[in-house]
Design brief:
Blueprint (H helix, E strand, L loop, with lengths): L5 E3 L6 E4 L5 E5 L2 H7 L4 E6 L5 E5 L3 E4 L7 E5 L5 E6 L2 E8 L11 E5 L16 E2 L8
Parallel strand pairs: 3-10, 10-11
Antiparallel strand pairs: 1-2, 2-5, 3-4, 4-9, 6-7, 7-8, 8-9
């Protein structure tokens, strides 16, 4: 599978490359993603140690951790673009927001997580994707 392996934020303050295209992606419907994005879900491509992430420009990269736990969120401190999430215990477990890629990342979402928390004003579509009431386990 080929796809975009570079990306960044809207203002260019954060730029990245990955060593190879991502292999899996999905939607998260948790209430934290709803608050963070202003939408009913967040869509991201998972990366891990086998897909090296290189930050080409990180001057404006900021990380935030919710006081109640969860993954750290990486965003541009200038334009506010949501870019990454990472496991605070293992930074090799990360996700890149699909819209952060410069072009088509070449992967399509195949699951939906935290569907029990889906926004009532944006129902989860009947699209045949695998669903998880809570988080999807990492393989």
């Amino acid at each position: 599978m080929t796809g975009s392996t570079s990306g960044g934020c809207a203002c260019g303050g954060v730029r990245f490359e990955i060593s190879q295209p991502t292999r899996e992606a999905g939607y998260c419907h948790c209430t934290r993603c709803q608050k963070r994005t202003g939408g009913g879900s967040s869509v991201q491509a998972r990366i891990d140690h086998s897909i090296g992430l290189t930050l080409l420009r990180e001057d404006d990269l900021r990380w935030w951790r919710h006081p109640d736990g969860g993954f750290d969120k990486g965003f541009c401190g200038t334009c506010g673009s949501h870019l990454f999430s990472r496991n605070p215990e293992d930074h090799s477990q990360m996700s890149i927001r699909m819209a952060a890629f410069d072009g088509d990342p070449g992967v399509r979402p195949s699951w939906r997580t935290f569907v029990d928390y889906a926004a009532p004003w944006e129902p989860v579509p009947d699209d045949g994707l695998q669903r998880y009431a809570e988080g999807r386990p990492r393989e």
